[in-house]
Structures are given as C-alpha cells and as structure tokens.
Amino acid sequence: MGAIKNARHPFYDHCDEALDRIRHEGRYRNFTPLARHAERFPVYGEERPDMPDGRDVVVWSTNDYLGMGVVPEVQEAAIAAVRDHGAGAGGTRNIAGTSPLHNELEAEMASLHGKEAGLLFVSGYVSNQASLQTILTSMPGWICFSDRLNHASMIAGIKGARASQTVIFEHNDLEDLERKLAAAPADAPKLIAFESVYSMDGDMSDIGAICALARKYGALTYLDEVHAVGLYGAEGGGVSQRDGVADQVDIIEGTLAKGFGVHGGYITAAAGIIDFLRSTASGFIFTTALPPCVVGAALQSVRMVRAENWRREALFERVNTFRQRLRAAGVPFTMTPSHIVPIPVGDAECCKRISRRLLNEFGQYATPINYPTVPEGTERLRLTPGPFHTDEMMDDMVRALATLLRAEGLMPEQRTGQAA
Predict the structure, then answer these.
(1) How many CB atoms lie within 10 A of CB 163?
(2) Tell me: the pLDDT tens digits for 60-99?
C-alpha cells in the first residue's frame, strides 16, 4: 500500500470535461476587455491584440445605473480619503480599528432605510451570504421561505445554514407563500427572504403584502434591495421607501456598487440585530474592511443621491425614451415595471452571437445572459439605459439590434410569418 506517484489527479479531468460541456452548450463566458473612460461614460475603450489603436464602445449593461462612479465629487472623495487614510484599511475592523468613515457610512445607510443601525460588508454578495447564514444558524428550528428567483448570494447563505429548513415558494406568488407559511409549525422561527427588484426579469415583489403575511405567521423579513437602492423612493431608499413600507421590513440589505456606483454591501436593521451580526458573522469578522477610498467615495455618492432626485428622474426619462425607440422600430423587448430592459432571445449560442456582433460590427456592448443566471430557453440581452446615454446612442443601438435580430429571425414580423 504505497502512494500513487506521478498520477494525474481526477479533478483536472473533471475541469476539462466540465469546460468542454459548457462550451458545447454555448455557455462559456469570455471577459470582454473594456476600459471605462470616466469623462466619457458610458463610452468605454476596447483594446485587443488585433486592435492596437483600440476603439470606442458604448456600454449598455453597466450596473452603475446612475453613473455615480464617474461623478467628479465622488472621485474627489475617494482621492481625499486615500490622502488622509492611505490606500487600504489595514485589516479587519476588529484588528485594525474602525475609521470614522466606516461609522459615518453605516449611519448614513441606516438613516436612508429608517433603521436603527447598519453594517458594512466587502460586497453585496458577502452581506447576503454572511447575514443569512448567521441568522439561520442562530437558533434551532429555523425555516427559511425563499423566493424561487432569489439571487445566488442569498441561496448561498441559506444553503450554508445546513441545520435550517428551506422552503421555496414560487416567484412572487403570495398564495403559494401563504400556503407554505400556514403549513409550517406555528412555533418554529421563520424568515422570508426575497428581493424588491429581480435583476434579470426586471419585475418587482409586493413588499407590503409579504410583510403582512410575515406578521400573520410570525416571520422575520429579509429584503434584498440591491437593484433598487439609489433608484426608487424620495431619497433612493429603494422600492420599500417608494411604497412606504420600509418600516415593516425587519432587515434591508443593499449594495454600494450599483445605484451608488462604488463598491461594498451592507445591511440595516434594529440595533440588536446589527450588533449580533457584527459580533458573530464570520463573513464580517474575518474579512479585511473596505478601503477608506471606497468608503469615502460611497459616502459622498449616497449623500448626493439622497439629496438630488433629478438623477432618478433622468434615469427613468432615458429608460422610457429608449423603450419608445425600441417600440417604434419593432424591436422586441420585455416591458417591466423597473429600469431594466430585457431583449428576449431564447437560445444561448444565438444570444452570444448577437452580443458578439453588436460589439464587433456596431461598437455596442450588451451582456448575453445565459444559464445558470436564467433558465435555459429564456436567454436574453439585459440592457440598462442610464442618464448618460444620448438620443444618438439610443438610435445607433436600436438600429443595430433591429439588424441583428432580423438576421436571426427574431423580429416580431418574422415570428408571425409576415414579410420582413
């Protein structure tokens, strides 16, 4: 019985086989080399070995929905924080101490959502994963009711709490949720985990109705507002603020990387819940804190977005204008109640091909969204027009989409058998 020498570990073969399968299914993901130009956003620069001089590309898939990442005041706040505090945080907040910037930003986020306290995490993914896992392992008998389309970070946190029970309810189906809540033991600790804006379909949950069910069946509510903060509500507090129900939600989670254009995640809740998670969540305790430049920039961005409603108005004017142009050109899109504009394709390879041709032939970049991000057969381009997209940019994109979708037989008149 000796060691096997010079043998190739089977994991190498597994990787090769899995990647071959992903390529065959048209799901292999290539990074597109694009450099953002702060002064020209949403114009980026594309540089490839076969394109030494580069070229301009208009990007339609950024999650920096308001373009706050390129606002001069936000950039200057980041620079000032580096000069004052250095490039990094120097460690976790337990080890290296907490800067005033971190405390100010947590207080700002708590104020935005009308909660007693807030807690910063290194990303929105980590804030969901760490918070949900910690909550659902805190007491025996937890039952988590999770919307079927919840984000991967929420699913990771829920699955990580192995001793808890997970009940999946159909997406935005209040009747299904109530049936499953009613069937659960009355004395079991319960949590309902859901989102406000679902980023791939662009639809929204009925937060007030879910909170009403939570009260009826004694459940805690955990709301992901990642794709809504900054964009909805009088101050950008999300859909819960817009609908006047933020006070009914126990825990509101969000990001600083989308509507606020910087980086990082956070949760807000009652002071006791925040202190408990600060003291017990490994995803917070054992991770180096956000760099001061990130926190300083985020703090400036949040304050500006809260005070300047015209940014939200500009976003939705652009979204509505883009939809009107798509409709006038006969380009199919999914109408949503949010700022997200999906272009349905329905095939992974076709979706990638259209995205590639948009970039190579028209200088337009739109991310192809394929499985496992969305179910097979529902592949789409996901467009997020923003305040910096001009009418000329929109016209160019609409013409490019019409040309390519027609070439693929995906225009409405082709699908109904009418002449192109």
Answers:
(1) 10
(2) 999 999 999 999 999 999 999 999 999 999 999 999 988 9
